[in-house]
Amino acid sequence: MELTTVWFALIAVLWIGYFVLEGFDFGVGMLLPVLAEDDTERRVMINTIGPVWDGNEVWLLVAGGATFAAFPEWYATLFSGFYLPLLLILVALIVRGLAFEYRAKREEASWKRRWDTAIIVGSFVPALLWGVAFANILRGVPIDADHEYVGGFFNLLNPYALLGGTTTLLLFLAHGAIFVALKTDGPIRHRARAFAIPATVAAAAAAVAFLVWTQLLTGTVASAVAFAAAACALLAGLGAVRAGREGWAFAATFTTIALAVAGLFLALFPDVMPTTLADGVGLTTSDAAATPYTLGIMTVVAIVFTPLVLAYQGWTYWVFRKRIAVHHIPLPTAAGAAPPVP
Amino acid sequence: MDPTDIARWQFAITTVYHFMFVPITIGLSALIAGYEITWLRTRNEQWLRLTKFFGKLFLINFAIGVVTGIVQEFQFGMNWSDYSRFVGDVFGAPLAVEGLLAFFLESTFLGLWIFGWDRLPEKLHAACMVLVHVGTLFSAYFILAANSWMQNPVGFAYNPETGRAEMNDFVAVLLNKVQLVTFPHVILAAYMTGAAFVVGVGMWQMMRRKHTDDDRTMYRKAVRTAAAVVLVSGIGVAITGDVQGKIMTEVQPMKMAAAEGLYETEQPADFSLFQLGTLDGERETFSVKVPGLLSWLATGSSDGTVLGIDELRERYRETYGQDPGEKYYSPRRLHAGDPADLLDVPADDGPRDGGRGRRGLGPARHPQGSYAVRPAVAVGRRRAAVPAALRQLLRLDLHRGRAAAVGGVRVDDDRAGGLARGEHGRGADVAHRAHRGLRPARRGGGAAAAHLHPQGRRPPPSPRRRARHRPGRRPPAGLRLLRAGRDRWSSRPSGSR
């Protein structure tokens, strides 16, 4: 296999990792006002993702960095062309990330309420816009002969892309609800289970519409297989969540997102940024790629370090595998230098 | 302001803001790991309390460092897409490796450290903070390797067919001689900053009335340890900074000469503590100097020769056939296949209308993406042995871009303007083509000045300005001073600033 294909696959893997992991982060953030009824319950929810959200977000950073190194033209065209949506996503990720660290630093209710709003909005915006962005990449955007994006912002908000955004939003909501059900105990867990059922149904409806549309647009046999498998996984997840099998349900939504994203990349290949202009020039993996020398070095680095990263990130999830309930949340302590002694 | 200026401001603000937090977190993570290990060794509860207290302060700083770091990683593509196209093959690799090696390490083990107090064995918990610190060091190494490559590009070749810089030696990129001194300098500075932060916070806590004597004893421990770190790392910062100054004088003599306002080559060269110059940046009018100090700083010997702006400029002209800053270089124009057009775009191409439709049509197609490339400033003996084709050491000028962003200070502006002999009063845009074979035909007289701003960012210079800037014919100093004053106050360029 050519190195460019390997790197296309690796970047797909990085995005899959990002969406399956940060997907439930976003879901938990968006569900903060839905599933939690008081501050302690909100803390329970936030603590389910507290140790891992930052590590999950790194998948995005590495996907960006890997695109820069392996496909500089793709990185340049995509990031400059999608400037405004990316900026919105980045602002959302900034306020969200700060909110996780800052909300507990003061005891005033108004302080916490504001940071909670930041978490909710900061989870909602990227969950929607990532779908919009990916749908646009698949559909093709106006790219001229110089590989420059020449559309505006509203050009990106076409019906297909909005359906894509709705799909990621609903999938992440369902994924997050199931994650909360898996990781908590007590009333939150029950609420999360109850919410997960309609959320999964809605996500399934949107996902089927979006994936079928994608398949008709640019699909291949491989992407059709991936999409069909994703649909099966989501149905299995629905069954599992109805049966109260949270672990299986989570595995199912995890698989669904992974397969759906894999299918999107399969449908895209070998393009990376198709153009909608007649006289434009879209980008393919070979147009956009770095030199074989750079790709070779990056491949060695990836082969050596990716298993290590997967191992210690997996270990983190193992360390924090226990369910969290309200009684685990310590009573508020005086701020400052007197933390509880373990 | 045109979009390029705004993009520069945005990039500079993000970078500076990001780097307000990064050194603190690099230094603090080391100190916190030290406190936790000391607690494990001594079992003195105070070290544990210090660990947790400064751990909290670490977190809120780290969070800002992380989220601004995402922007940092993305804005190369968002703001400087042509730059990214041009250097991605070299520059992307350290960034990707940084993500894989450093970011995962930092964020994963920080999560474990924050939430792992009662889930992990004590030693493993302390090891998590050590790993976070190792992650910050990796991160610093790779991002500084990328930056050092911008300062002193090595391990690559320019490929005229693809119009981009292509890496051929990754090890050379990682072991760049600028990098080898910059990394220790930055890390020691980070230790110094983080420790100074602890000293400040600790002393403040010692002064607060609400604390018991016991607490004061605890904060005194923090202050004493951190003060020792400040002292040791501070000495290290000075030493590495001195070495770095010598290396930068070697690889970027013009930057150092401009920073020192050294017009004539001197031996020994004096160090100016304070300097006033003419408004056009052509010469100095008053200065307070320490004899021989610049020679010592730049060469290590108090009677060493330090090249001045004027001589460097002549050398650039000899090497490249034009002044620094006379032309822009853009790989996209190279793609377009017209070498004559490559560096030779009229400035009066019309104002940027922001209209997307214009892109892809001639010179106006890079409203945001253009970047400056300066020639290799390595001069003298090394230069002579290098064939022209290898002289394409491209120096990519994001840093100069940043200087532009803060260049509202008139003095900077004028002094920098001296770099390009005032041709556009803005040294930050000093930019160059680097490909000798593509040198356009020299134009007569001041016409060259009309091509400084290929994207039409500036109005065409007035005939008067052209005359003033015509190379090789300098009016008397007094006249130049008067004209500079008149330009300054009566006919401000109607440009963007």
Characterise this structure.
The complex is a heterodimer of chains A (342) and B (497). With 342 residues, chain A is an all-alpha fold. Chain A has helices at residues 3-30, 32-35, 39-49, 53-70, 72-81, 83-102, 109-139, 159-183, 187-218, 221-242, 246-268, 285-288, 292-319; strands at residues 271-273, 283-284. In chain A, helix 10 runs antiparallel to helix 11. The longest helix of chain A is centred in the middle third of the chain and has 32 residues, at 187-218. Chain B is mainly α and 497 residues long. Chain B has helices spanning 3-42, 45-79, 81-115, 122-151, 170-174, 177-207, 213-251, 253-260, 293-299, 309-320, 331-336, 339-342, 381-384, 398-405, 410-417, 463-469, 477-489, and strands at residues 156-159, 164-167, 271-277, 284-290, 373-374, 395-396. In chain B, strand 3 and strand 4 (284-290) form a beta hairpin. The longest helix of chain B is centred in the first third of the chain and has 40 residues, at 3-42. Chains A and B meet through helix 4, helix 5, helix 6 and helix 13 of A and helix 2, helix 3 and strand 2 of B.
Q: What attributes does this structure have?
A:
heterodimer, A: 342 residues, mainly alpha, globular, disordered C terminus, B: 497 residues, 59% helix, 5% strand
**Helix fraction of chain B?**
55-70%
Could you give the order of the helices and strands of chain A? HHHHHHHHHHHEEHH
Structural class estimated from helices and strands of chain B: mainly alpha
Overall radius of gyration of chain A: 21 Å
Can you list the strand order of the major beta sheet of chain B? 1-2
Mean pLDDT across all amino acids of chain A: 91
The H-and-E topology of chain B, N to C, reads as HHHHEEHHHHEEHHHHEHEHHHH
Strands side by side in the biggest sheet of chain A: 1-2
In percent, how much strand structure appears in the residues of chain A?
under 5%
**Distance between the ends of chain B:** 6 Å
E-strand count of chain A: 2
The most extensive interface, with participating residues per chain, is:
A-B, 70 and 74 residues
Uncertain runs of chain B are 337-473, 485-497
Q: Characterize the main sheet of chain B.
A: 2 strands, antiparallel
- Please provide the count of β strands of chain B: 6
Number of domains of chain A: 1
- Please give the share of residues in helix of chain A: over 70%
**Which structural class is indicated by helix and strand composition of chain A?**
mainly alpha
